[in-house]
Every structure is written in C-alpha cells, then in structure tokens.
Amino acid sequence: MFFHRQELQHEVKPERPDAVYARKLQEVLGGQYGEITVAMQYGFQSWNAHMPGKYRDLLYGIGAEEMGHVEMLATMIAQLLEKAPLGVTEGAMQEDPTVAAIIGGTDPQHAIVAGAGARPVDSNGNPWSAGYVTASGNLLADFTANANAEMQGRLQVARLYHMTDDPGVRDLLSFLLARDTMHQNQWIAAAAELRAEGVEDLPVPSTFPIGKEDRDVSYQYINFSDGQSAGEGSWASGPTPDGKGEFEYVPEPPAGVPAPPPTKPDVRLHGTTGMPEPVEKAMGAAQDALHKE
Amino acid sequence: MFFHRQELQHEVKPERPDAVYARKLQEVLGGQYGEITVAMQYGFQSWNAHMPGKYRDLLYGIGAEEMGHVEMLATMIAQLLEKAPLGVTEGAMQEDPTVAAIIGGTDPQHAIVAGAGARPVDSNGNPWSAGYVTASGNLLADFTANANAEMQGRLQVARLYHMTDDPGVRDLLSFLLARDTMHQNQWIAAAAELRAEGVEDLPVPSTFPIGKEDRDVSYQYINFSDGQSAGEGSWASGPTPDGKGEFEYVPEPPAGVPAPPPTKPDVRLHGTTGMPEPVEKAMGAAQDALHKE
Amino acid sequence: MFFHRQELQHEVKPERPDAVYARKLQEVLGGQYGEITVAMQYGFQSWNAHMPGKYRDLLYGIGAEEMGHVEMLATMIAQLLEKAPLGVTEGAMQEDPTVAAIIGGTDPQHAIVAGAGARPVDSNGNPWSAGYVTASGNLLADFTANANAEMQGRLQVARLYHMTDDPGVRDLLSFLLARDTMHQNQWIAAAAELRAEGVEDLPVPSTFPIGKEDRDVSYQYINFSDGQSAGEGSWASGPTPDGKGEFEYVPEPPAGVPAPPPTKPDVRLHGTTGMPEPVEKAMGAAQDALHKE
Amino acid sequence: MFFHRQELQHEVKPERPDAVYARKLQEVLGGQYGEITVAMQYGFQSWNAHMPGKYRDLLYGIGAEEMGHVEMLATMIAQLLEKAPLGVTEGAMQEDPTVAAIIGGTDPQHAIVAGAGARPVDSNGNPWSAGYVTASGNLLADFTANANAEMQGRLQVARLYHMTDDPGVRDLLSFLLARDTMHQNQWIAAAAELRAEGVEDLPVPSTFPIGKEDRDVSYQYINFSDGQSAGEGSWASGPTPDGKGEFEYVPEPPAGVPAPPPTKPDVRLHGTTGMPEPVEKAMGAAQDALHKE
Amino acid sequence: MFFHRQELQHEVKPERPDAVYARKLQEVLGGQYGEITVAMQYGFQSWNAHMPGKYRDLLYGIGAEEMGHVEMLATMIAQLLEKAPLGVTEGAMQEDPTVAAIIGGTDPQHAIVAGAGARPVDSNGNPWSAGYVTASGNLLADFTANANAEMQGRLQVARLYHMTDDPGVRDLLSFLLARDTMHQNQWIAAAAELRAEGVEDLPVPSTFPIGKEDRDVSYQYINFSDGQSAGEGSWASGPTPDGKGEFEYVPEPPAGVPAPPPTKPDVRLHGTTGMPEPVEKAMGAAQDALHKE
Amino acid sequence: MFFHRQELQHEVKPERPDAVYARKLQEVLGGQYGEITVAMQYGFQSWNAHMPGKYRDLLYGIGAEEMGHVEMLATMIAQLLEKAPLGVTEGAMQEDPTVAAIIGGTDPQHAIVAGAGARPVDSNGNPWSAGYVTASGNLLADFTANANAEMQGRLQVARLYHMTDDPGVRDLLSFLLARDTMHQNQWIAAAAELRAEGVEDLPVPSTFPIGKEDRDVSYQYINFSDGQSAGEGSWASGPTPDGKGEFEYVPEPPAGVPAPPPTKPDVRLHGTTGMPEPVEKAMGAAQDALHKE
Predict the structure, then answer these.
(1) Is the pLDDT of residue F290 over 70?
(2) Which residue of A has its CA nearest to D276?
(3) Of C96, C170, C290, E172, most Cβ neighbours within 10 A?
(4) What is the distance in angstroms between the Cα of E175 and the nearest Cα belonging to chain C?
(5) Residue B176 and residue B160: Cα distance in Å, rounded?
(6) What is the 3-state secondary structure (H, E, C) of chain B?
C-alpha cells in the first residue's frame, strides 16, 4: 500500500519562470532514465522478488522515494511554466525576437494540452513508455540495471545543472544529484553483497550449468573491427572478473561456417523462390489440390 | 564502413521446424535486450566517443560482432518457420487439437507479414524501438549499461535454452551464452579499467564538482517503506563504493517541506482555479482587453 | 511524498496457478485503462492543480490508493505465474495438447523476460504508454475523463470476472469492482459539484467567451450519414444540457465551400506541381540564383 | 461506405502563413484528442455497436463529420506552411534573429518529410496512435469517453484561439469550437437517454450482478493522502449518483493484509531466491535430471 | 467533406464464427499495410497535393473507397467474434483442449477491451500508428509508395485467403484481392503518366539540379558483401532506368577515408575524454570560472 | 558476418558546428526513411530470402553499405554538435536573441541524453521503430518498397541540401544523393528483371490463382469522390500494366449491400444491446445459471 503526505522531500521554489527550461527538465521526469522509470522499475522488481528480506526491503524503500521525486519534478515544472507567455506567434515575431525565441524552445503541449502543467513525457515530448523498465527476477542483473539507471540519471541532472542559473532550480538539482550519488552507491554495494553471500555470481545467471555453454569461446575477445589497440586492455588478457577464466585476444575472426540454404516455405505464402512463374504456379496448383485448400 | 561476408559465426541448423519456438526466439533478436539493441548501442557509443584508442576499438569490435548475431538469429528463426503449418483454423480445430495449439502459440505476423521469415520484433510482436538504446558519451555509465544488457541478454538465452530440446537450437544458444559470458566480463573489466586509470570515477559523472551536490544526503539510506531489514545491508553502514563517504541508515523519512502554493497560469489557458465563474470571466475579459488578444 | 507499507489493501491469494489468466489480467494492470493509468493520471492532475482544497485532496487521496492497486495486481499476476510450465515446445506438443494449448495462450515475456513476474504491459504485451494519461488543468474535463476511466476499468474487470472460476482471483476482482463503483460515483459527483458551485460549467471550457464561437452551428445535429433515426433522440430537439440553447436536427449537411487552391510551396521542397519539368527547373534555377541557395 | 465531396464544411483561409502556428495546430489534428481520434473512435463504436437505431445512427452521423474536420485542419496546416522559410540555418542566424526564432519553433518534418504539408502527428511530432481510441461495446462508458474527448478537444481549440491573431485561422477555430459545444452536449444527452430508457445504468456495466462485488467498500471514500478537506465534498456523504448507496468518508485506510510470501518459480528461470548458489545449483541439477531437459 | 451511407461495398457474411481468424484479419485492418494505412495515406496525399486535377482526384477517389474497406473489415471481424467463447481458462483446459487451443490463438483484447468488437490494431495487437503513413508532396515517390502498399496488402490478403475455408470470408477476400489488383495497376499507371507528361522523372526528385550530386558514384554498384553473382544483374551493367547513365559494377569497395578525430564537446556535458580526472577537473573549473556557470 | 573498418566511405567534415542542422539531419539517420531503415530492411530481406544468387547478393551488398551510411551520418551529427552552446536559458535570453533562437531549434536530448552525440531518432526525437521495416518474402513487392524508400530518402536529402550552406555538409549530402540515385535505379531494374525472367509478375503476388479473385471489379476505377478529371488518366481506360485487362471508369459507386445486423455477443461481455436493463439482467442470470459461470 502507498500513502501520500502533502509535503515534499525538498523545497521546490524556482526564482523565476522559465518555460524553455521546464521542457528540458521533462527529461529527468518522463525520459528513458527519468524518475518515472526508476519508481516503476524498483516497484516491479520488488513485487516480482522471490525472497523476502533485505534486498526486497531495499527495493521497496527506494521505490517509494522515487515516486516522491516524480512529484517534486512535476511540481517544479508547473512552477517554471506558471508565467510562461502564451505565444501569440505573429505579435511575438514582430515585437520581440527574444520572446519568439523562447516560444520556439518550449514544448507546445505544455500550454495546449496541459494548460501550463507537467506531463509524463521526455524533453522531446515522447510519452513515457514501460519499455524502459527492467525487472527480470534476477537481482544481480537487475541491480546492475539500477546502478546504470542512477548513473545515467545523475549524468543528465548534472548536465541540466549547467543549463540554468536559477538558484531555486539548482537547489533542487543539488538535492537530486546527492540522492543519485547515494543510489548509485547502494546498487553497487547490493550487487557486491549478492556475490559475497553466494546468492548470485558472474556470469549472470550463475545458476545456469556453465558446462552447457560453448566454453571454447567464453573468454575470447574476437575483434570484428580493424583497430588493434583494444588488445591492450585488461579485457584482452589476464584473469576474468567472474574468476573462471583467462581473457584471450583474437585479432580477427576465424573463418565462419556457410549459411544454411535458403528456406522454401509453403508455396501458399507466395514468397519469391526463383522458380519461373509457370512452374511455381503448377506446384501451387498441385499443392492446392492436395490440401483441397 | 561495414563489410558483409556470406558466412555465419556459428552453425545455424535446427533439427526440426518449430514455429512456436521461433516466436519465442524473437525476444533475443528484437526485444529490449535483443541483439539489435546491443549492435546499435555499441555502434552509437563508438560513433559518439570522445577519445580514440582502446575503449573505442572495443566498442567497434564487439558492435560489429553483434550485427552478425542479429543475422544468425534471423537465419535460425527462418529455419524454424520453414515448415510451419499455415493454420487453416477450422480444419485444424476439427482434426487435431495439437496443431490448433501450435497455431495458437505462433506469431501470426510470421506468416501473414513475413511469409515465414524473421521480423525485427520481440516475442510479443512489439517492433524494436531505438528507445532501448543507451549512448550517453560517459563511458563509465555506458559500460555499466552494457554489462547490464549482456546480463539480461544471457539470462533470457538461458531461459530459452530450457524451452527447447532441439539439439541444433541448443547448439546455437550454447554459443550465444558463451559470447554473453565474454561480453559481461569485458564490460565489467573495462569499467574497472576506466576507474583504475583515473579516466572516470564514482559517482558518475565524476567530473561534476561534487561540492555542488547536497552532501548532507549523499550517503543516507532513507527508508520510505516499513520493512527494516534493509538496514542490515552493506548499503546501510560502512564505507561507500565511491570511497568518498560512509553509509548512514535513516529508518524513516524526516518531515518534508510544504509544497508551494498551486500555480495560477494565464487565464486564457482555461484551467480550473476555483474562482466562481463570473469572477473568472471578468478577469478573463480584463486580460483579453489588456492583450487585445 | 509517498510512503509504502508492506501490506496489501485486500487479500491476493489465487487457489491455483493460471498463466493464461495471468496474461489476461495484465490488461487491468498495464493497459489503456489499467491501474497504472489511473495512478499516474490522478497524480499528474493533482500536481498540476491550480487550487488547493477538496478537489485536489480528492485527487491525491484516490491517486495513492491506485498505486496500491498496481501493487495488488502485480502480486496476483506473479502468484498466478508461480507454477507455470516452462513450455518445452516439442515435448508438450507430443505428449499433451492441453499443456500445449496453455502455452499458446500465455505471454512468452512473462517467462523469458520477467522470470514468472508481472510486467507493465497490457494483455497483448504492449508496454504501458503515458499517451494514455489525461491531465489538462481543467477539472470538469478531467473529472469526466476520470469517470470514463473508471467505467472502462470496471467493465474490463467485470469481463475478466467471467473468465475465471478461481475463487481467490474472483475475490480480488470483487473488491476492485466495488472500488471502481465508488470511483465512478465520486468523479460524477465531483463533476456535478464543480457546476453546482459555479467553478466550471458546460461547455468546457466555460471560461472561453462563448460569443467568439460560431453560435449558428452550436446546437445543430448535422447528420453526415443516411440513417434518420438519430433525429428522434433527445440530442436532436429540446433544451441542451449546457442550458444555453435548443437542439436542432439538420437531416443532411448544407452545401460546403470550395477548398482553397492547392498550395505552391518553395520549389526547393521538390513537391509535384504539375508544371512540365523544364519549366519547373528553370524556375528552380531562378530561385536558386535569387537565394544564392 | 464513405463518399467524398470536394468541398469543405467551412472556409479555410488564413490571412498569412505561419509555420510556427501550423505546428501547434497539429495537436488538434493528430494529437490524443485531435480529429483523427474522434473520427476513428466514433467509427469503431458504430461498427462494433450491438443495436441498430438512433444510438448507432448518431455515431455514424458524427463520425463522418469528424473525417471532414480532419480534412479541414490538414488543409489549414498546408495553407499556413505554404510560404514558410526553408530555414538555411547559418544565413538566418547571422541576418535575422526573428527568422531564426521562427525556424526554432517549427516542426522540421513539415519541411523535410512532408514538403510543407500536414502530417498525422501531434504538436510534438508524435505519430497518431490508435492507442488513443476507445470503443468498448458499452455505450454508457463510450459516450462518457466521447463527452470527455469533446471537452478536451474544445479546451485545446480554445487555447489555440488565444495563440493566434490571424482572423482566418480564428474563423475556422470559431467554427470548430461551436461543433465541439454541440458534440459535448450530444454525448451528455445521449448518455442520459441511455439511463432514462433503462438501457444502461450506473455503475457501468450495470448488467454485472452487483451482488458479486464487495459491497462493503462500494461507497467508501478511503483517503490515502493526509489532506482532509476532501471529506467536505458531495462525494463523501449523502446519496450516490448511481442511486444505490450512501457515500461514507474513511479518513485513513484501515490496516491492510499481509502480502503473500514471495513466489518460487521454476528454478530454470534463474531468478534470485536467496539460497546460496551451490544449493540452488544442486536443485537445478536435480530438476534438470528430472526433466531430462 | 465525407458522407457515410449505411451500406457496404460488398457482402460481409461469414458462415461461422472464428475468433482465431478474427485476430489474423486484424492485420489487414490495422497493420502496417492495412486499410487504415491506405485510407489515411491517400487522404494526406490529397490534402497536401500542390496541383488540382486528375492526380488529386485519383487520390480523393481511392482514399474514400479505402475508408469503406476499413468499415467492411471491422464489420467482418465483429461477425467472426460474435459467438467466440469467453474463455474460462480452467474449465476449458480440463474439458476440451480444442477450446483451450482456440482461446490461446485469440486476441484477448477482442473480449476484454472491445467486448467482441474490432480494434484499430494489427494481428499482434499493436495499435495502428501514423508512422506507417507516407505523404511527401512528391507524387512520383508517393505513387511508388502506394504501389508498394497495395502489393504488400494484396500479398497479405492472399496469405489470409489460404488460412480459412469459410466461404463467406473468402468471398470478401476475393473482392479485396480484386480491388488491390486494380489499385496496384492504377498507381503504376499513374507513376508512368507522371513521367510521360514530363511532370516528374527519375531519379526522384527530378527537380533537384543533378549536377550537384556526386556524379562519379551515381551509377556504381559497389558490393559490400562477398557474393559476386549480383554482378550479373541488369543493375550492374547497361543503361540505367533513369536514362541518364550506365551501370558499373565495382566488386569491392575502394579504400575509404579516415574518420575525423573524436569530438571534444563542452566539458560540462561530462563525456569521457580520456584525460586523467584531475586534468579534466581543472579544465572544468577553468571553464566554470570563465562562464561564471 | 559483418566486419568493421575504421574508415568512412566519404569524407565527413563540416566547416562549422550547427546544432540546429544536426537535429534536422537526424531525419535521414533515424527517421521513417533514414539510413537505419534501409540497412535493417535490406538485412531482413536478405536473411528471409528464399533463393540464393543474384537477388540475394544484391540485398547483402547494398545492406552493408547502408550500415556504413548510418555511421557517416552519426559521425557528421556529432561533428555538428561539437561546439554547440549548452543553452543556459536565462543568460542567453538576456544577452543574445540569436543564441536563444538557436537553442530553440536544437534537440534538447542531443545535449542532455547524448552529451553532444548522435541519436537513433528522427528530427522530432521519435525513436527509430522497426515498424518502418518491410520484408515480406515476395521480392517484387519488396523491391518496390525499396525503390520507394530510396525515393523518399533522396527527396529528404535534397530538401536538407537547401537548408545549409556549409560546404562540408553539402559535400556529404552530394555523395548521399548520388548513392540514392544509384539505389533507386537498381531496385527499379531489379523489379523489372524479376518480371522479365518470369520469376514474379503483376499483380503481386502473381502466384495466387487469379481466378479466385472477384474479376468483375479487378480493373474498375470506382470513383468515391466527386471530381471527374481522374477519368482522363491512363488508369481509367486502356490496357492495364499487368497486361491482363482493360481499365474501366465507373464515375460513381454502384449501390452497396445492406450491412449485416448488429452482433449480439455473450451477455457476459456487458455490451449495450438496447434491451431494457431488467430483460438483459434476466437473460444474463439465465446464462449465468447455464454456465455455472
């Protein structure tokens, strides 16, 4: 169950309206790595978890915080839009190129669709999609997904920090940066703990019988491009992070195997087979007869 | 530049057709973590890279291999579909429930749209979307994304391995599992190397002046759920993975701050403000007059 | 701020697993009118609201309940999937058409992607999209949208009720049906209260100066089809619900006006204008010269 | 059958080109509540209708009108784009910030993809999606959806009215506002008539045996947020709009029930179960042996 | 303007219900090349046309016919779904594998969302997307797009013809096949007429000054794969269809040019540049100071 | 298998940065007819091909070239973005409307998400979708699709050519224009060769027994609009391009047939049937009893 309290985790008070920036801020609300993504991702991971206890509690605990971040960003965006100019094109154009420019940089749906409100979209107006969510049931994979989400998220907030000089906006971003720092650290620590406790290991999934994979190529770096400096990396020689092998560098791919012959599906699918038309038709007729269609 | 050779990296020869399984296999071809995703992801990361040398070579080298995996899976799917029944509903229903069941489990677009060919979609027929791709320009974030992609990918291939007993299909999956093992290891090693060389560090992005984030909350685990066992994890006390702090456990959120008052945008956006209608209208009229609309 | 408590609003205990039904239940979790939609919709409406007080409190109050419904449905789906067969195609086909049929009716991503967990998708596997959300800032419009969402939602739950005979599943659906009954009633009551208080009125938006619309056609039912029985409805004669006019029935559309002549955009957009090619080219050349491109 | 006549229902003659406004106008052509949505929505509702007569005639009659509105808006957009500058970036930048600003506010696909033509997209360029359409077969639900669509649509047109001062554009919008006024009134009247005739009733669907829902919670407003003013609304006490109960206000949620224990799906799905790895592996091996995989 | 008549262009009367086939038939209603696509495509092409007369009349004339095809297919699908079993999973499973199989092959949204009605989606339930539409303003390109759409459409109808033995369904498909035959022929004839009249020519767009393209490579077939038989085709030697050159076969690509050095964007975007962290930070600080952020 | 070489097919060196143009150029990288589309389309067509030899070699050969075009455009876009201003809204607004205007015209995700890198999206930021790809297995249909793709692609490049005066950018576009000229010619030649060799013919699919289509309407141009000039075209009289008939002009549609009566699905789907509620309920109860639900 979720409960809502009419407070915010941190102050949301921009110094002045800025409709262009409001559009940009949509990215970390409704983008691929915005707050809706992490709120839903941690939610689904917790509801699908297969063990009670600390890992699931962690997912529950951070997941609900992220829902509050969704609310903070939506509130900030509405504040930034409060005094946005309506954008009468003609007038603006003739009188003030700066106002015209501002209009050009805003999200028109902020005004037309939401009446100066936040929207569940990214900075280009793409609606948030659940295709962004990862929840596989394997916690080592999923915590790595979470670490990545927090990294991408903090990176975007950092970039946005430099795109405004409004102290109120920066104050909120400063808070979000810190929470992303925490969450990056937490998912990395939790992933390590899974391995330390022997609950999961590399390669993911560690419960798959490793003997069933083609071990001959499990640690070969086969280079399909022509730059050779990748042979110098720690991923090309020495022990592997999973502790189960040694990296080997293969500077160019060995010969492949011939592709199987092209398929010949049922003639009633009318694919092109290269047989002259009358032959094909005769065959089709025969097959038709056979199947009494 | 990309060059194509009419060979496959590994044999693709199913023992028998299986249209139901062909549909499932679409997941690792055209799904969120399928081969199209990693091929495009490593491609865009390499084209956007800001430094020459080993990291970019690594991206180029694996990216091109993944394009070959797209081809192998597409070829396998076409093979599995070659003898798929057309699916005359009525006949199948009356004569053979097993055939009917098979038809129920297939992707109808395999027959209707592709004529027994592979499609750039997932196992539910959702077209592949570039919204799956991550390429931020920050290699520590992106290599973490890549490690996650290879984990999710190998997990899905492992699940698919158990869903067939066709030795030819399993042989290909066995090869793919091994390559995913390699790539998991490589991205983890490469992420570690970025840190070891001082090129990048935690938290991502490490080049953002950390003093500008709200350091008071950078290492607090604030628990927004009521389970307390998350306080026992290594993410709740002790040093943080970024080496810059100590975790602190906050069992429940401190009081928040009041939300700002609701916004009052331009009356011409016709939002509901709670003022009785005539007042609002009068205000609107005034504003209209003012702006000469 | 949102807080999570590790309890559910109602019991979630199916009597037996049913992976086919789990797929169907996804509709009311992640479909157009599923619980994610209403949770997000009421959230965005509250964050964008322009007046404090009872209407916004109502949105906050129900919105948080709906997040708990998301959780209940996700939990139910995971329960239903717990013992789902993995689906080895060949074996199933040969041995047991019933198992084969079940596999045909399941969502393959439940197993391959989520490892027997719930997903933020509908019953056809389409990822939830924020394109489903409505939050305009005009409460009369939005409460009507909410009433519709609860109607469509209850309708779908009712249909799903008949598609299972599992008493545990029906018990949860019975609870959800009742909550949808409540929420239908609430949004209808709230919409009426907006009008009773003079805060909003019909037609939406009532704050737009009605004299600026083309009043000649504001209450005409112009029939663009050839059935005439629609002329008998209460929408074709008598007073209008907005209290501002009388319906009038126009059995067939009056003559229209000629369309404007086709456009002739800049020749450098290379649209087809019907001029013979040499003329067009000469004009292009002239225009090129003029613009020095 | 549909027939086309080369006339428009109303004049479409802007006074001057305005490519920035053309982009905005796309919202009511190809957006969530644009004309394509209502044309398709009324179409599918009529084709799926289960009774002949006045309700279906109404759907047919308005549906075909809306197709004509699609045409009018597309024509208007093409007119507005006719003289749009091509947008040579560099030149524009150096010479005239106003032209530069205009370019910034246009939809680049108007020029690049459509050659100064209208497109089936919204004002942010999102392609129209059939995910916007509602057609459930239950007319009380669907007419409520329609009333909402006309409200949202008229609201957007009203906002757009204030964003231009072109008399030709305003003349068309004035016409569309009036038609939306009519259609709002019609769907509201039609929904009321369904109830008056006893064909449908609240709660939707009224044909579901109401005794099968959990009547204990059918009329409780359970407040999941901490603002208490929602208790003052007509939705918190007094008779309910469905005429079947009395509203009751529950200021905070009663205790919930414990969630079921986490699921333990087939080990071959490789989810994390918290068992140390060797145990899990042994179990996997045993299960493998069992299934001879 | 569009007018609707309550008749169908051809009879729609299946002999018996078939919910599995109803799902398949959705492909040619709401798929990439379904009737919605062509109706909207011809509509937008006509509204964006730059010349009056026969070509635009052709677009208007066929476009309206296609809207009627949308209606016929929706009607047929509703007929096929009329007696579809509801699909009580458990019962079906235990009693009758054939019924179970049928349920597995149906679209669950047909029942849950549309109450046994047609939907604007394809055979996998993907909502129709305006991303399928082509309307560029260049008629030679667009008529080629139309010819392709009619080819793909007829191909799909032909495949569907073999998937049913219901004489009523086949009767409708037989009609649609014939109309697609006509429309293929028409668009091919119309494309040829554009060239014959000198209105358009190859290569599209023929109004672009051809001297501005890099004529050295305009007719070279550069082979980026290793199969050599493509050198034998009429596309590898002899005159070109545009009548402006001679094909030339280049069996493997000439050497390329070096890529430009990697980019170094503003350090405040926090991309990885390979400079050790302290250096980067110092630079960042300097830049910060410079910009006073 | 695909191999990558660290070279480009043509030089990619813009004279100066231009972030606004970078956004526009995304169209031909990640739009409906961008390079990703053709690379994937030719790939899937080759992997699904049913005959070895020259046609498949052609697909392989061009497909791999297009992957290199993806790379060139991504590289160009990154170059154009290299020095893009970050876009501090407030500062820009106050100081320089031109800079403000530039910011308005850029894609905010270029900076926020990709750190000044290319993205797999179109010029409005819509992620590339595999819904753009066509690969049916019928080569005559698919080569027509390919000819169209190259026409639309060249048309877009031509339009983009006029939108910049940067000689470096134009140099690349000049190369791409030439390659598109070649590929248009090739697909047209290849389609003709399929017919000349008797492998395929019109109408597509030519292997469907033409006697099974409704030949009465195979060559009738039935005009559903009221303009009559389409009767003058070569598509309205004379021999048809498929060589199998004569066009006939039908100036207005013959009378249609009545639609079937509305459907009456299972009452448990709760659609509106027009029966007064008590009757319907009684029927529902009866049916419930019958099915013991």
Answers:
(1) no
(2) A199
(3) E172
(4) 24
(5) 11
(6) CEEECCEECCCCCCCCCCHHHHHHHHHHHHCCCCHHHHHHHHHHHHHCCCCCCHHHHHHHHHHHHHHHHHHHHHHHHHHHHCCCCCCCHHHHHHHCHHHHHHHHHCCHHHHHCCCCCCCCECCCCCECEHHHCCCCCCHHHHHHHHHHHHHHHHHHHHHHHCCCCCHHHHHHHHHHHHHHHHHHHHHHHHHHHHHHCCCCCCCCCCCCCHHHCCHHHCCEEECCCCCCHHHHCCCCCEECCCCCCEEEEECCCCCCEECCCCCCCCHHHCCCCCCCHHHHHHHHHHHHHHHCC
Does the complex come out with an ipTM higher than 0.95? Answer: no
First to last CA, chain F: 56
* Cis peptide preceding C258, ω within 30 of 0: no
Dist. CA A77–CA A91, nearest whole Å = 26
Q: Tell whether A102 lies on the interface with F, counting CB pairs under 8 A.
A: yes
Provide the whole-model pTM.
0.95
Between β-strands A220-222 and A246-250, what pairing exists: parallel, antiparallel or unpaired?
Answer: parallel
The D246-250 sheet, strands edge to edge: D220-222, D246-250, D238-239
Q: What is the pLDDT of residues B115-125, one digit of tens each?
A: 999 999 999 99
Q: Any bridge partners for residue E157, and if so which?
A: none
End-to-end CA distance of chain D, in Å? 56
Distance, CA of D66 to CA of E24 (rounded, Å): 29
Region F219-244 average pLDDT: 96
Residue B96: per-residue pLDDT: 65
Residue D92 near residue C276, CB atoms below 8 Å: no
Asked if the C-beta of A152 comes within 8 angstroms of chain B's C-beta atoms, the answer is yes
| Pairwise CA distance, residues F280 & F42, whole Å | 56
Q: Is D109 on the interface with E (CB under 8 A)?
A: no
Q: Return the CA Rg of chain A.
A: 28
Contact E117 D47 (CB under 8 A): yes
User: Chain B residues with CB inside 8 Å of A185's CB?
Assistant: 202-203, 219, 235, 240-242, 245, 247
Place E266 in a pLDDT band, splitting at 50, 70 and 90. Answer: very high
State phi, psi for E250 to the nearest 5 degrees.
-115, 105
Q: What is the DSSP string of A70-87?
A: HHHHHHHHHHHHTT----
A291 pLDDT above the threshold of 70: no
Mean pLDDT for the stretch of residues E75-99: 73
CA distance linking residue A192 with residue A181, whole number of Å: 17
Q: Which chains touch F (3 or more CB pairs under 8 A)?
A: A, B, C, D, E
**CB contacts < 8 A (E, F):** 380
pLDDT band at A279 (very low <50, low <70, confident <90, very high): low
* CB contact set of A78 (below 8 Å; sequence gap of 6+): A116, A117, A118, B263, C47, C48
Is B260 at the interface with chain A, CB within 8 A?
yes
C212 lies within 8 A of chain B by CB: no
Name the residue facing E242 among F83, F185, F218 (closest C-beta). F185
Q: A290 pLDDT exceeds 60?
A: no
Chosen from D12, D47, D54, D59 to mutate, greatest number of chain C CBs within 10 A: D54
Separation CA B187–CA B185 (nearest Å): 6
Query: By the 8 A CB rule, do C128 and C73 touch?
Result: no
Neighbours of chain C (3+ CB pairs under 8 A): A, B, D, E, F
Residue F239, classed as helix, strand or coil, is: strand
Verify whether the Cβ–Cβ distance B2 to F75 is below 8 Å.
no
Q: What is the spatial distance between Cα B89 and Cα B94, in angstroms, rounded to a whole number? A: 9
What are the tens digits of pLDDT across the range C20-45?
999 999 999 999 999 999 999 999 99
Dump pLDDT digits (tens) for E86-95. 766 545 445 5
